[in-house]
Amino acid sequence: xxxKLEENKGYPLEKQFRSWRDIAKExxxxxxxxxxxxxxxVLLNGIELEAIRFSHACxxxxxxxxxxxxxxxxxxxxQATTINWLLPAxxxxxxxxxxxxxxxxxxxxxxxxxxxxxxxxxxYRFGLLEDFDHMYRYSALMDRLEGKDANNILxxxxxxxxxxxxxxxxxxxxxxxxxxxxxxxxxxxxxLNALMIMSAEFQTHDYYMNVGPLFxxxxxxxxxxxxxxxxxxxxxxYESLSDPEETWMEKWMLHEAMEVYSYYSCVESESDPRLKxxxxxxxxxxxxxxxxxxxxxxxxxxxxxxxxLPTQFPKPVSFASQREFVRHTLAQEVNMSADGPLFxxxxxxxxxxxxxxxxxxxxxxxxxxxxxxxxxAPGTELTQKRIAM
Amino acid sequence: MTHQDPGLGRNRTGMQMSPLLSKEMMxxxxxxxxxxxxxxxxxxxxxxxxxxxxxxxxxxxxxxLTLKGMAMSGIDKLKGxxxxxxxxxxxxxxxxxxxxxxxxxxxxxxCSAGSSSPAPVPVERLELIRQNELEHMFLIKATLENFGADxxxxxxxxxxxxxxxxxxxxxxxDPRTSIRxxxxxxxxxxxxxxxxxxxxxxxxxxxxxxKLIAPFQKALQEEDQHVHEVRTWLKNLTLMxxxxxxxxxx
Lengths: 389, 250
Hints:
The complex is a heterodimer of chains A (389) and B (250). Chain A is mainly alpha-helical. Chain A has one domain. Chain A has helices at residues 20-23, 35-61, 66-84, 93-114, 118-146, 151-154, 188-211, 218-239, 248-269, 273-301, 323-333, 351-360, 366-370; strands at residues 336-339, 342-345. In chain A, helix 2 runs antiparallel to helix 3 and helix 9 (248-269) packs antiparallel against helix 10 (273-301). The longest helix of chain A is centred in the middle third of the chain and has 29 residues, at 118-146. Chain B is mostly helical and 250 residues long. Chain B has a domain at 100-241: Ferritin. Chain B contains 8 helices and no strands. In chain B, helix 3 (84-113) runs parallel beside helix 6, helix 4 packs antiparallel against helix 8 (210-241) and helix 7 (179-206) packs antiparallel against helix 8. At the A-B interface, helix 6, helix 8 and helix 13 of A face helix 1 and helix 2 of B.
């Protein structure tokens, strides 16, 4: 049973403001909650932050939309707070980083498999292998800096292995721009997928930029600096997949639709009843937002929103371990790079990317250094050491 | 149920909770083409060493007024080649005592919100210790002022001890931690505090600040008492939770 727009008008926008006590709820248990509950929280926070980001950009460029944007944005900001405040205080910035990379791997892998456009699916697989490597580097950092096992967060859903080495992920900015889908012919799910993954990567970039300086250790600071730069590349890539010819109203409506689809997907798979109830509540909110924006779209563009939106939302995103898909992709595509919008073998890289990489790696590579001879082991690599008794 | 110690439950962090997934994870780990990887760098500690060797100090000890020639104070009468170290350490103790007051206030809130009756630790003793920490703070404040030093400044040692104890506050203020968890954190604070006063007395003695010894000794005795009490509460709470002691006695 898919979610049908005509049957789900959502909760009225004017009733969506909430009290501080309702906004800031009790967090999940880092120890007892399922890792995929945490994955959904991180993803939804990324979605909400993008809603706020887009709304501000749109407001700066569209005087007539400012009141409606401000109203919905205030609700989105409250939702973002509720979602992000579900993360507990005993979850350190590095542990949260591991969770962010788990999102980047598992959700991107799921999206890559449901994406009907072969080129966009390739772009997701391309980014996926880079985030997969980040997980390995951050796990090495966590092990060697704090003596902690990243699998306490991952709960065995996600492998901790090298991917495309972070050191060679650095490309010239022109080689991170892709060819967008065509707004007139693309499947609605293609548009929603591109927005969802871009949102997740954007918050990852911003998170690393915020928490990187919280670390005292020089190598940790350097690693966050290096990987934040790759996340900027990923945002550049994923952002360029959306058609820049879409109108502001079209983009706004797609953002709201993507939020509906994200909450719908999370609610469908959530097993924690408390989190499920929050998700259902916010799904209703988002359906309410979408109705408002659809009405505005009709009024301003004098077009039927259903030219753009799906009458029935696609089947929910799968929140499950994508281990086999990742393993297969790794074996097939680890040596890929990009030349402008084209995906190529790394041996064919152009001069500008080679020069850029040489420049940023000129003083050494934090990602190589942190994981020198690192192999993850259950309970940290120290459990593999031989000691004299 | 509030602030009770956790019992058995569905903790998902270990490999054994997900036997099938863990088996797959180990299979992929063991069949990964490790030999094809370039896994080592020539000097894995180079970057850290670069930063370690070129770093500047975390900050400076604030200049007392006398060094600016603005007012007479006691610091110029202190013995030793670097009397400012005493100011730095006094600043550290003051910051720690100030945080100590807040730690006990947070613990008192947690105790009063709990459902256990009587409270698992004696609230009146917690209130008295909080009062002691506040008095110690004022003692240090007056000492700093007598030396012409600025009691509102954050000295480097005050900053560092605050970084070192960040986790204590996080443990005690988290509504999901138990009284015992909080007492564990308080114990870390009290052990550090007691040794801090010990060191301060030795430093005052070496610097010839005889008039400070008696009030500082009094503070140390109170801190000794805190350590003793906290240690006893922690032992009793832990034994009680483990079901090997009928009830905590204070």
